[in-house]
Amino acid sequence: MQEDNGEYEPVIKEIIDLERSYFFEKRNVKTERQRKLREIIERHTKVGGEGDDS
Amino acid sequence: MILDEIRLQDFRCFYGECKITFSSDRDRNVTLIYAENGVGKTTLLNALLWCFYGATTSRFEKREDILNYDAKKEGRKLASVEVLFEHNSKHYIAKRFFRIGNSDGRNFVVARFDHGGQVDIPSPDTFINTVIPREMAAHFLFDGEHAEVFLGEKNRSSIRGAVRDILGCSLIETAIEDLQAISNQFRKQIPSTPATKKIEQLNMRMDSLGTQIDTAKGEINSLEKSRQLTEEQISDIDSKLRNTAATKELQRSRERLTEQMRRVEKRQKESSDEVYKWLGAHGRFIVSRKITADSFDYLNDEAHRGRIPSPYNEEFVKDVLEAETCICGAHLPPGSEAAKKVAKLLEKAANQIMRDRITRVRGRLDQLKSERAKAPNRLVKAKERLAEANEEQATIEAQLGEIHDKLKGINFDDIASREERRESLRKELSEIDRRIGAMQTGIGNAERERAEIDRDINDLARQDTQTAVYAKRRNLCESIKGILELQLAEEENQAKKVLRAGIRRILEATTRKVLNLKMSDDYGISLVNSDGMALPKSSGENQLLGLAFTAALVEFAKVRENAQDYKLLPGTIAPLVLDSPFGQLDESYRRTTAEFIPKMSRQVVLLLSRSQGSEEVLSALQSHIGAEYLLVRHNRDAAGERKPESRYFKGEEYRTAVFESAYDGTEIVQVAAA
To answer: Which end of chain B, N or C, is less surrounded by CB atoms within 10 Å?
Structure first.
């Protein structure tokens, strides 16, 4: 599984780090957290970006 | 984490300042806290939760009333709980405050003890969550009902939740949830162009399906809540009816004992009659012992031998006189001196009748002697039978008295109405289940349709340059979500294997029967006997299963302490605080469980009421007890009709309730070491 999904590892790590930073203290800031997650996804899908599969 | 001490100040029922120093000894790792119901066991447990997380258990009543009532009346405005603990060989103090009229100040502080001083930890919540993640805490600090949560077939979600909590899946779970939300946002943002008109329509259908699903899920949630409430009511009735079942059993015992008593009384009468009868028939043998002995002595005396009845035979003397010749040959003429002497012998001579009488007397004396020899043995046996019957009667009387005491105050009329209510609740439950089932089918259908539409939208979006980027973003969200879901499932499977093995091992060590654990992939946990039959959920064995499950979770958390995967929260070593864990276990299981509890965790805090802490339980725990405390209830009121309440520990008397006290509340008293 790890090998097949290697290309996603950096973005997954970023997402988990984000979740971790919000997990302990800022439990009720869902909107802010999801906005940041959105930014991560957008960054990784920029034309010519890391997640560009076009 | 190892707990060192808890300090309470005006927290709930604890008036003024109270503290408990927990045992941190490795061998004597149990701190025992004795308390009757309503004195503060649950408050103590909640004090720990409140201090660490600012939260209390759902069963904690009036959760917002933190400050002690009497303290508040006296004008005090601050309540606090401080917990001193050790983590990774360093000592810390966590302090949480509740202030009336000033909510601005810092209300939670964690500090490390350093060279005699205290160094504040910058993010106390984060720190505590790394020591014991909040999700895991519920499995370490639990009330009596916690174990039961894991028993029901319908509580699979709780079991799954517990496994995930200890597995530390929270980050992955939130990420999956967030990715789904983001994907939906991207879908909605797909711009409307002539080419994407179809997408717009599909989006509308998609939203409507989403609303349907959300409504159905909301409905299921509220149904689940009423299901839980209904189940709780049934469980309450069950526990009352269990007492009723016990009542029936008592009544059966009473009938059996009454019948036994009737038989014993019959035996008692028979034995007593036998004693009297025997005395009537054979008493004279005992009484005549001396006469018999004297008579025999007289008859058998050397001096009398040959003289009784007489050495002379009447017939013989008469023959001599008639023949006028003595046996020596001398002539005995009638009227001569010699003939007169011989004739005088007739006065003492015995005839046949006398000889017969003497023979009969000897015979009777012989009989008396032989009957007397047998006599004591028979009487002793009759008396033994009587004594046995008397003893049995006394035992039965005592048992009947006990049953009478137990049965006093039971309202038998109540039982039928409870049974009726239970039946109607069961029907409600099955209606709730039916509705939940229907909703779930609806959700399943809607979700399938939504997935198809979703694929269509993405296909359409990909074909349009303006919308392609959204399709790409959504693809990324879905791919990552899929990877995380897969990992979650794999981690869960591993966890299930470890837990299954752990529970089996624990059950083998604690149960007297051969019990097999069944844990299905969807977390249905049950116990089956050697014939494969599932045991009733209310049985002590299942209570034990709940504890075994908790023990296995604690063990699993410990194994996961150094987990390396960045996606999972690491496990932890935490104290296990058990409030009344024995529930319905019978005495022998309580003993086995008590023997097992010290092994459940590095540190155990056990809260016990008198009924839970029986002599058997305490003796099983004895060599592991490192500290003992007693919660004492103080009342402003006078005792009135109430009897004084006290308990004895190590020969010392401790009062468990104090009347005419200065306050209403609970005092913590340390039980002195022996």
So the answer is: C
Regarding whether B502 and B518 lie in a shared domain, the answer is yes
Q: Could you tell me if the ipTM is greater than 0.90?
A: no
pLDDT digit string (tens) for chain A, length 54 residues: 344 567 899 999 999 999 988 886 666 688 899 999 999 999 998 865 444 444
- Domain span at B53: 2-132+574-632
pTM score > 0.80 for this model?
Answer: no
Query: Of B355, B386, B417, which one is at a domain's C-terminal end?
Result: B386
Q: Are residues B285 and B313 in the same domain?
A: yes
> Which residues from chain A sit within 8 angstroms of residue B567, using beta carbons?
12, 16
The answer to whether the CB of B448 falls within 8 A of the CB of B133 is no
Tokens 């299963």 — which residue? B545
Q: Do the Cβ atoms of B170 and A5 come within 8 Å?
A: no
Q: Which residues in chain A touch residue B170, judged by CB atoms under 8 angstroms apart?
A: 23
Q: Are B77 and B175 part of one and the same domain? A: no
Judge contact between A51 and A11, C-beta under 8 A. Answer: yes
Do B23 and B8 share a structural domain? yes
Show which residues on chain A lie within 8 Å of chain B, measured between beta carbons. 1, 5, 8, 11-13, 15-16, 19-20, 22-25, 30, 33-34, 37-38, 41-42, 44-45, 47, 51-54
Residue B68 is part of a domain; what is its CATH number?
A: 3.40.50.300
Cα–Cα distance for residue pair B655/B74, rounded to 1 Å: 26
Q: What tokens were used for B303?
A: 């001096």
Q: Which residue's entry shows tokens 């844990």?
A: B519
Option in B171, B186, B483 nearest A19 (CB)? B171
Residue B101, helix vs strand vs coil: coil
Which of A23, A41, A45 lies closest to B171 in CB terms? A23
Structure tokens at B647: 């308990």
Q: What pLDDT, in 10s, does the model give residues B333-363?
A: 888 888 888 888 887 777 778 778 888 888 8
Structure tokens at B213: 């699903």
Residues B603, B575 contacting (CB under 8 angstroms): yes
Q: Which two tokens stand for residue B259?
A: 């019948």
Chain A residues touching B179 at Cβ < 8 A: 15, 37
| Domain end residue (candidates: B334, B355, B386) | B386
| Residue B85 and residue B29 share a domain | yes
Nearest CA in chain A to B185: A38
The answer to whether position B173 is within a domain reads: yes
Residues B336 and B271 in one domain: yes
Q: Tell the burial category of B1 from Cβ atoms under 10 Å away from its Cβ (0-12, 13-18, 19+).
A: buried
Distance from the Cα of B463 to chain A's closest Cα (Å) equals 12
Residues of chain B contacting A41 with CB distance shorter than 8 Å:
182, 186, 473, 476-477
Domain boundaries along the sequence of chain A:
6-44
Q: Are residues B527 and B512 in the same domain?
A: yes
Q: Quick check: B483 contacting A, CB < 8 Å?
A: yes
Residues of B in contact with A26 (CB under 8 A): none
CB-based contact B566 A5, cutoff 8 Å: no
Same domain, B527 and B481: yes
Q: How many domains does chain B have?
A: 3
Q: How far apart are CA B557 and CA B141, in angstroms?
A: 14
Question: Is B177 contained in some domain?
Answer: yes
